[in-house]
UniProtKB/TrEMBL annotation:
Pathway: Cofactor biosynthesis; nicotinate biosynthesis; nicotinate from nicotinamide: step 1/1. Belongs to the isochorismatase family. It comes from Photobacterium lutimaris. Its EC number is 3.5.1.19. GO terms for biological process: pyridine nucleotide biosynthetic process. GO terms for molecular function: metal ion binding; nicotinamidase activity. This is nicotinamidase. The keyword Metal-binding applies. Residues 56-199 form the Isochorismatase-like domain.
């Protein structure tokens, strides 16, 4: 068994450390659990949103967010977030430096792309980021997923990986935080129906690996 742990977008932009961006409650507290699950893995992957400030989906205030866009690869409006060079782009406290990861995926660098999952640059899932192919070359068969947020990028990344039919995918809820209880519950149901193993914590993850 070759195991990879994927830290999905564990960035300050999605935490109370950046209240003017897209804060997820307790988003800055998952570092220890991400490190714990990485201890079960042979390889560790980091994904990071990396958005330009002039992206087509940017709106000035939070009350204008989540409006539908007539754009093939940016479906909703969001406030500016995860801009390289800003505090929000940085990873949360407690995680290794970027250079200590085995592989890194930067998402949404183009101004007209706003992907949620880490496997494709576009919402139509035609343009690969190379993550799936990298995992294949490393002969990975089991993937542990955590990060931010459960109901968006974590869910989409896990579903994309599961859809390949090549990996056993586990999501560790203790290593995630979500936007709202109802959408997290919906995401968990969707992932389970797809065949993803949803675990409450790293202890449950370890049991699934034994």
């Amino acid at each position: 068994m070759t195991i990879a742990a994927i830290d999905v977008d564990p960035q300050k932009t999605f935490t109370p450390l950046c209240p003017n961006e897209l804060p997820v409650a307790e988003g800055d507290t998952i570092g220890q659990e991400l490190n714990h699950q990485a201890g079960f893995a042979d390889l560790r992957v980091l994904t990071k949103d990396a958005h330009p400030s002039n992206a087509v989906w940017v709106v000035e205030t939070h009350d204008k967010m989540l409006s539908p866009l007539d754009h093939p690869n940016a479906d909703l409006t969001w406030v500016s977030h995860a801009v390289p060079g800003t505090t929000g782009f940085e990873t949360i406290p407690g995680l290794p430096p970027v250079t200590e990861y085995d592989h890194v995926v930067w998402k949404g660098i183009e101004p007209d792309l706003h992907p949620y999952g880490a496997c494709y640059h576009d919402l139509e899932e035609k343009l690969s980021t190379g993550l799936i192919e990298w995992l294949e070359t490393k002969k990975v068969d089991t993937i542990l997923v955590g990060g931010l947020a459960t109901d968006y990028c974590v869910k989409t990344t896990a579903l994309q990986l599961q859809a390949t039919g090549q990996f056993k995918v586990l999501v560790n809820l203790a290593a995630c935080r979500g936007i709202a209880p109802e959408t997290v519950a919906q995401a968990c149901t969707e992932m389970r129906l797809a065949g993803i193993i949803v675990c409450n914590d790293s202890k449950a993850v370890k049991a699934q690996l034994s």
